[in-house]
Amino acid sequence: MSPPATEIAIFPLQAGATIEDPSSPAGSIWKSILDTVAALDGFQQAYWGRQIENPTMLQIAFNWDSVEAHQKFMADPSYGPFLKHFGSLLDGSGSVYHANFTPHPPKDVFSSTSSAVTEMATMYFPITFSSDDQSSYTESCSKFIKIVTGADGCTGAAAGWVIEELEHTSVEGKAKAFMLVIGWGRVEEHMAFRETQAFKENIHFMRNGVKSMEMHHVKYQLH
Q1: Over the stretch 80-112, which tens digit does the pLDDT of each residue have?
Q2: DSSP structure class, residue 201
Q3: How many CB atoms lie within 10 A of CB 119?
Q4: Of 137, 125, 121, 109, nearest to 204 (Cα)?
Q5: What is the number of other CB atoms lying within 10 angstroms of the CB of residue 208?
Q6: Which of 121, 213, 99, 114 is nearest to 154 (CA)?
Q7: 142, 149, 141: which is closest to 115 by C-alpha?
Q8: 3-class secondary structure, 158
Q9: Residue 7: strand pairing partners
Q10: How far apart are CA 74 and CA 97, in angstroms?
Q11: Does pTM top 0.70 for this prediction?
Q12: Contact indicator for 163, 99 with CB cutoff of 8 Å
């Protein structure tokens, strides 16, 4: 069986969808969605929240025993009605993919009790980026992680390759992607770290071979 995986999904919410309030219509639907997923075989934890830079975007991080455990649910006849139910909260289509994070499960990074906000950084590479290239980049990333986890306000980090090939405007056709997720006490602490000499001297570890990089913050909570 494949290793444990984290489902990453990003969806635009309808205006006024107060999913944080379980007594509201939207909140009641969202709770039922989370309860359904939490009861599935192979499911571990559900973290969800809004992107801080764009609060209309819902982002989830669901930990699974394996990607096959999630795919089994997606292949089940109940998945269609589930999606329709979920879709009533949304204002358009979203994206869903999986990453093999180390460590797994990355609880400290997503948990609101340890990390008030989570930095979500995604690096995109050409589809020709080889297995050896990926191994070298993973090792390079580990050097940056040693630096960032010593920064003021950092509460932990996890990293790993995205299982699926993704589309990105910076790469012709499909792209390979790598994710680095970092817990912080506050967004301001992350921004302050970016101004330090330690960041400036070590960020090159994260940029080797990268065609494009995206970053935002999410305020996650555990279901």
Answers
A1: 999 999 999 999 999 999 999 999 999 889 987
A2: H
A3: 22
A4: 137
A5: 13
A6: 114
A7: 149
A8: strand
A9: 62, 98
A10: 13
A11: yes
A12: yes
